[in-house]
Design goal:
Layout: E1 2-6, H1 10-23, E2 37-41, E3 46-51, E4 57-59, E5 65-69, E6 75-77, E7 82-84, E8 91-96, E9 102-107, E10 111-114, E11 121-128, E12 134-136, E13 142-145, E14 151-162, E15 177-181
């Protein structure tokens, strides 16, 4: 499985250059911008992260509360926490194995702390979602690869504990996931 990310699409630059060349106009000012081209090559029996778990933006309440990011991408809050804007996303992983292969999932911890300018916040209750290419079965968490080509994706959501009057700013932390192919 491959993914590509382009910050400045090359095709757009060529189209603009072609229009300028056809019109015969010479630019009064010219500027060159560097562009990046990226790709992640995934070997069989491995996986990569496509999107990080992001709870988006919020306004804290006067009481402590929680924000739940479901594996479906739905975000809910309680105790006066106001969800603002978009930008939230589940953690999404993809990889390749073999059709009908069993894959066991284990998380490095049941909860983590994310840190920023204020008191740390706990992220807990990680929930792994089922998809057509990775249909979950019972505990321990596992799925069978359902796609004939062996490519699979699955999302993970979690619950964020927000303190009363949590200080504004960016909070980050790390967590791990392990897949075992059988």
């Amino acid at each position: 499985m491959c993914g590509a990310s382009y910050k400045y699409p090359a095709k757009l630059g060529m189209a603009v250059a072609a229009v300028c060349a056809i019109s015969g106009a010479s630019p009064a000012l010219a500027e060159t911008e560097p562009a990046n081209a990226e790709i992640t090559v995934v070997r069989p029996l491995s996986f990569v992260i496509d999107d990080n778990l992001d709870f988006g933006s919020l306004i804290p309440g006067t009481l402590a509360g929680t924000v739940v990011m479901a594996p479906t991408g739905t975000r809910t809050a309680n105790n006066g926490i106001v969800l603002v804007g978009g930008g939230q996303s589940t953690a999404t992983f993809s990889g390749q194995g073999n059709f009908n292969q069993r894959v066991d999932i284990s998380l490095g911890a049941n909860s983590i702390l994310i840190t920023g300018p204020g008191a740390p916040m706990r992220v807990r209750t990680f929930v792994i979602g089922s998809t057509p290419t990775a249909v979950l079965t019972t505990a321990p968490l596992r799925f069978r690869i359902a796609a004939a080509n062996g490519i699979f994706t699955f999302p993970i959501g979690a619950t964020l504990e927000v303190g009363a009057n949590q200080a504004p700013g960016k909070y980050t932390g790390n967590w791990s996931i392990t897949l075992n192919y059988f």
